Every structure is written in C-alpha cells, then in structure tokens.
C-alpha cells in the first residue's frame, strides 16, 4: 500500500507535521536528505501511526499514491529549490509539491509558474504555530491552483487547528498568495511583540514594577479584549526566574533582538506596494537598533530628560494604548493584503484570513473574531479602523493612548510602536494633511506639478518667473 501524503525534511517542523498527519489516520511517507534522521524518526515514532520511510527521493516519490502529494519542510531558499528539482524529476503530471517552509512569495510565484509548465501543481503554503502547532494543529495558509486545493485541502484542514469547529486552513489564492499572507502574519507578529515589549518597558521604567509584577499584569490583561497567545506567553517569560542567578530571566538575556527575515520582507513588500505598515516597520527597525551595541554604548552619554511624569492609572492607560496600537498594526497588515491581492490578482478573502489566524498560529487571539466580524459586515471596509466596533474601541482608548505617548516622551522611554500608531491614527483622521506643502515644494524645485482642490487636471506654477499658473 502507498502513502496518502509524504513529508521530506524531518527537522522539527517536518517531523511534527508527519506525526500530525499520522495521528489523523493518514499513511505518511517520510524522507530526509540525511537518512540517519529518517531512521531516528522511525525509531522514535513508528508506533504513533503508519509511516513509509524512504532512503532516496526516488523511493519516496514512488511510495506515494497518485496524484502524489509531497510536502517539503526544509530550509527556505536554495535548499527548497534543490528539493523541488529532485522531486519533480520523479513526478508525473497532476502530482503535487507543497512547500510548507517560510518561502518568499516571489520565489513561490516563480516556482509555481515553472512547475505548471511541467504539468505539476505547486502549492506554496504558509504554516504557522512553530513545532507545537505543527504537531497539534497549525494555522495553514495554502496558495496555488484551486484544483490542487480540491484534493489537498481536506487533508490540510484535517490536521489544522480548529476554532469553534472551523479549520484554521483555507485556500488563500493563486501562486504566491499563501506565502504572502504568511509573511504578513509574521510581520504582524513582529508588531504585536514590539507593542508588548514597549508596554513592559513602560510598566517597568515609569511605574517601577518588577518583571514578576508585570507578569501578573499581563496575566490579568489576558482575561480581557487583549486575550491572545502572545500576551499569555509574555506572562510566562516575565515570570520566569533564571535558575543560575536567581534573577528575572529577562535580565540575563542579551537585549539584542534577532530576525530571520519575514518581518523585513513584509516591510520591503509594503514599500513596493506603497502601503504604510508603520507598526511592522517600527518593529523591524527596533530590532535592528537593538543589534548595534557599539552605537548604543557610544550614545549612552547623550542627554536624557530631567523631568518626571506623574501618571495616574498608568497600567490601565498602557493596556488601552496597547490595544489601540494593535488595532492600527493589524489594520495596516490587512491593507497590505488588499494591495497585494489587487496587484497580483489573488482575490484574498480578508475575513477568511482573520478566521484561520484565530487558532494554531502565533498571533492567535480573541481579537481576530472582531476582525472577521468586521469583514463579514463589510467586505469592502476602507480600513479596519472605521469598523464600528474598532472605531468605538479607538475612541475609548485614545485619551489613554495620548497620555502614554506623552509620558513616554517626557521620561525618555522609547515607544516607536505606540507613537507611530498614534501618528498614523491622527494622520488618517485629518481633514487636510501638510502633503499639500510637500506637493508645492516638489513643484518648486522639480516642476513635478500638483492638483488643485477646486478644478480637475494637473498644474504647474512658474516659480522662477512671474509665478503664474498653467495647466501641466
Ligand atoms: P530547518 O529550517 O532547520 O531545516 C532543516 C531541514 O532542511 C533538515 O531536514 C535538512 O536536512 C533540510 N535541508 C537543508 N538543506 C537541504 C538541502 N540542500 N537538500 C535537502 N534537504 C535540506 O528546519 P525547520 O523544521 O525548523 O523548518 C523547516 C521549514 O519550516 C523552514 O523553511 C522554516 O522556515 C519553516 N518554518 C519553521 C518554523 C519553526 O518554528 N521552526 C515555523 C514555521 C515555518 P538534513 O537533515 O539532511 O540536514
């Protein structure tokens, strides 16, 4: 008998995904470049279900039922291309290659087009939830041909997380749509974590709370509208004490945040699409700033504020600022999906994205139900901020939000996430923006022309002569 599905790449993600399929009753072919890992896998997990191990790619492909479905869980980039090539060489038209790694969506578009030429179906699929999710139910964001999803979808939905009985897996759209959405998911995750970090910093610097006390604050916040996986694990990490020194764990960790690239990709794509994802960008830049110890050491001598700020109810104000800034960061991420969907012809269903992020993935949160409801009520919402529920939440939060940003500036605690989110909110609200002055300057030095509020067409003022205006 042959396998229903195969997994090649048996590191932590692939291994757990293979076990997840087996736990759901599927026969799973398993393969890894270094055979030792496959043998280890069989030693450890053979009793958990039906596995068909192979030592070569050829045998692995041959062990799959047609149409073949092979999931690649190897390092993104070159290794993924190499494995695709090896699999494709042994496959037949109608077979499917699924890349579950963190591929760049542009690579996925390229790979999908190339394999289509050869009659193979390529599904670039975002998988979120880390090793725990892969084993017990991740959030899955498959792109690619709708035909492929018909046969593959039911298997993926089966092993995905479920919220209220709904699978956290849906066909996102053609070619790179799945990996794009996974990328934005990760970008939002960066923003979320930055806002959480700023909240912690303020509670510690402005309120003088100890990490263990802040852990309690987060635990309490997790009972309300902020309820989410990231808030939950923040309480865990802040409450953790280093066994060796007896100090709070956060105080023994080097304060330089690393990144593997999906946040940077999100911002790069947003720049290309012209979508202001300030929350994600500030998060990426904050990590970059943290990673320059020489500059930070040199700058330590720079002057800081002398003042202190009396701030009543700071904890509650920070909670509200966090919620409001989070709404902004998500709204921006969803805007980016709208823009990409138009640019690449993907027709992404935003409500469905909120739905599949409710469980399994790192940004899973109660909050995503509100986003789903917002898009259910109005598919063409110009921005999440104006959905009545979110508009009301922002109204309720804005005084706190402004006080928090003011306090942070007064005492010199950097809050780029909170501050930029508030600036975005205020800019979007404005009747008139100073962009009109920017247009005037551009016309002055570069004859770049401008449009008028009272007439159609483009105009240029002859700045160097009599300053008369003419149609451009
Ligand atoms: P790694 O990214 O650490 O990759 C290790 C695997 O890749 C091993 O099986 C290794 O085989 C294989 N590999 C590397 N180079 C090649 C090559 N040239 N040819 C064939 N196989 C190769 O594994 P993870 O499980 O951490 O992640 C897998 C994918 O899932 C990655 O794309 C990652 O970005 C993504 N992902 C990871 C998450 C996580 O939490 N870790 C979450 C979501 C997605 P060998 O044993 O022979 O070295």
From TrEMBL:
Q: Which UniProt keywords apply?
A: Gluconate utilization, NADP, Oxidoreductase, Pentose shunt
Q: What's the Enzyme Commission number for this chain?
A: 1.1.1.44
InterPro entries found in the cross-reference section: 6-PGluconate_DH-like_C_sf, 6PGD_dom2, 6PGDH_C, 6PGDH_Gnd/GntZ, 6PGDH_NADP-bd, 6PGdom_BS, NAD(P)-bd_dom_sf, Pgluconate_DH
Q: Which GO terms describe its biological process?
A: D-gluconate metabolic process; pentose-phosphate shunt
Q: Where is the active site?
A: 182 (proton acceptor), 189 (proton donor)
Q: In which pathway does it act?
A: Carbohydrate degradation; pentose phosphate pathway; D-ribulose 5-phosphate from D-glucose 6-phosphate (oxidative stage): step 3/3
Q: Where is the signal peptide?
A: none
Task: Indicate the segments forming the 6-phosphogluconate dehydrogenase C-terminal domain, all copies.
Answer: 178-464
Instruction: List the Pfam families.
Output: 6PGD (PF00393), NAD_binding_2 (PF03446)
Q: What residues bind NADP(+), as annotated?
A: 9-14, 32-34, 74-76, 102
Reaction equation(s) it catalyzes: 6-phospho-D-gluconate + NADP(+) = D-ribulose 5-phosphate + CO2 + NADPH
Query: Which amino acid positions bind substrate, per UniProt?
Result: 102, 128-130, 185-186, 190, 260, 287, 442, 448
Q: Which GO molecular-function terms appear in the entry?
A: NADP binding; phosphogluconate dehydrogenase (decarboxylating) activity
Name the SMART domains for this protein. Answer: 6PGD
Superkingdom, taxonomy of origin: Bacteria
The record describes its quaternary structure and partners as:
Homodimer.
Family in the record: Belongs to the 6-phosphogluconate dehydrogenase family.
Q: What does this protein do?
A: Catalyzes the oxidative decarboxylation of 6-phosphogluconate to ribulose 5-phosphate and CO(2), with concomitant reduction of NADP to NADPH.
Per its UniProt record, what NCBIfam families does this chain match? gnd, PRK09287.1
Official protein name in the record: 6-phosphogluconate dehydrogenase, decarboxylating
Identify the species of origin: Planotetraspora silvatica
Q: Which gene encodes it?
A: gnd
């Amino acid at each position: 008998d042959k396998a229903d599905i195969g997994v090649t790449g048996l590191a932590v993600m692939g291994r757990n995904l293979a076990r997840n399929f087996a736990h759901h009753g599927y026969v799973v072919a398993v393969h890894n470049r270094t055979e030792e890992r496959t043998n280890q896998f069989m030693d450890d997990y053979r009793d958990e279900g039906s596995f068909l191990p192979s030592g070569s790619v050829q045998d692995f492909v041959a062990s799959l039922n047609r149409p073949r479905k092979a999931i690649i869980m190897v390092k993104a980039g070159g290794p993924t291309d190499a494995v695709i090539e090896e699999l494709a060489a042994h496959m037949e038209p109608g077979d499917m290659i699924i890349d579950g790694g963190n591929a760049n969506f542009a690579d996925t578009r390229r790979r999908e087009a190339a394999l289509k030429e050869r009659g193979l179906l390529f599904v670039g699929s975002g998988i979120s939830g880390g090793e725990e999710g892969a084993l017990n139910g991740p959030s899955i964001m498959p792109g690619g041909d709708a035909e492929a999803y018909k046969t593959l979808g039911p298997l993926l939905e089966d092993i995905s997380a479920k919220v209220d009985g709904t699978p956290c897996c849906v066909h996102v759209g053609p070619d790179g749509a799945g990996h794009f959405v996974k990328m934005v998911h990760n970008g939002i995750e960066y923003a979320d974590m930055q806002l959480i970090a700023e909240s912690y910093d303020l509670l510690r610097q402005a309120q003088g709370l100890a990490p263990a006390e802040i852990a309690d604050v987060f635990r309490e916040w997790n009972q309300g509208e902020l309820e989410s996986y990231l808030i939950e694990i923040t309480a865990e990490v802040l409450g953790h004490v280093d066994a060796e020194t007896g100090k709070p764990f956060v105080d023994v960790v080097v304060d330089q945040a690393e990144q593997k690239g999906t946040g940077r990709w999100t911002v790069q794509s947003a720049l290309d699409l012209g979508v202001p994802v300030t929350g994600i960008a500030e998060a990426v830049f904050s990590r970059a700033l943290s990673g320059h110890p020489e500059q930070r050491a040199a700058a330590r001598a720079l002057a800081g504020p002398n003042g202190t700020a009396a701030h009543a109810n700071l904890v509650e104000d920070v909670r509200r600022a966090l919620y409001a800034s989070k709404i902004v960061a998500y709204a921006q991420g969803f805007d980016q999906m709208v823009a990409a969907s138009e640019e690449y012809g993907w027709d992404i269903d935003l409500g469905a994205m909120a739905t599949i992020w409710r469980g399994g993935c790192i940004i899973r949160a109660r909050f995503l139900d509100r986003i789903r409801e917002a898009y259910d009520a109005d598919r063409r919402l110009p921005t999440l901020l104006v959905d009545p529920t979110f508009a009301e939440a922002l109204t309720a939060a804005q005084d706190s939000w402004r006080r928090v940003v003011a306090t942070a500036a007064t005492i010199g605690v950097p809050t780029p996430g909170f501050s930029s989110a508030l600036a975005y909110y205020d800019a979007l609200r404005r009747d008139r923006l100073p962009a009109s002055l920017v247009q005037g300057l551009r016309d002055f030095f570069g004859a770049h022309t401008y449009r008028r509020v009272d007439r159609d067409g483009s105009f240029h003022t002859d700045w160097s002569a009599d300053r008369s205006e003419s149609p451009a």
